Protein: GAF domain-containing protein
Organism: Ktedonospora formicarum
Amino acid sequence: MSSKANSHLQTESSESPEKSLERLRQENSRLEKLLDIRAQENALLNEVISTIGSTLRLEEVLRRLLEAINRATSCDMGSIYLYDKEKDLLVLASATGPFEAYVGQIHMTLGEGITGWAALHRKPIFLKEAALADPRFHYIPESREENFQSIFSVPIIGKDGSLTGVITLQAVAPHEFSKQQRSFISNIAALVTGPLRTRSSMRTLNASLISSPRSRC
C-alpha cells in the first residue's frame, strides 16, 4: 500500500466520531442536492421533449423552450436565433426580456457579436462578467444590454455539422452558469436541432405556398 493511502487511512482513523458524523452529513447533503438537480433536469428534459414533439406552432415551441431554459439557469434574458440559410443570417426567432419586442427584426451575420461568434465557430462561449468589454460583443441599443454582464451562447448544430441556430442566455449580475448547467443547455441544443429544422422548413414552405399565385380551377 502506498504512503499516500496509509496517510489517508491514518487521517480517517484519527478523526473523532463527531467529525466523522459531520463529514457524512455534509456528503449526504451534497448528494441530496445533486439528486434534486438531476430530478429537475430530467423533468425539464421531459418537458422539452414533449414540447418539440407537439403540434404547436414554431413560435410557441420556441417560447416554451426558453421558459424551460430560464427555469434551469435562472438567467434574466434568453433568446433563440434561427439560421436563415438563403440569406446567410441569424434571425431572432424568440426572446424574453428586452429582446421580446424585436423578434423577427434583429438579424446578424455569422461571426457578428457573441451569438454570431458561437454560430460561426460552432462552439459554446461563456463570459461570466463584463460581457460588453469583450471585443466580440455587438451592442444593440434597443436591447439595453448594458444591464447584462454575463452571457452564454450555445450553437444549435446538426449531426452533420450544419447550423440550425443559437441559444443565448444573459444575466444582469455576474452569473456563474455552472458546468452542469452549460452541459444541460448544450444537451437541449443537440436535442432540438432536428425538430427545429423540420419546423422551420415547414414554416418556410407554407409561407411560400401562401405567397405564391394560385391557379383557378
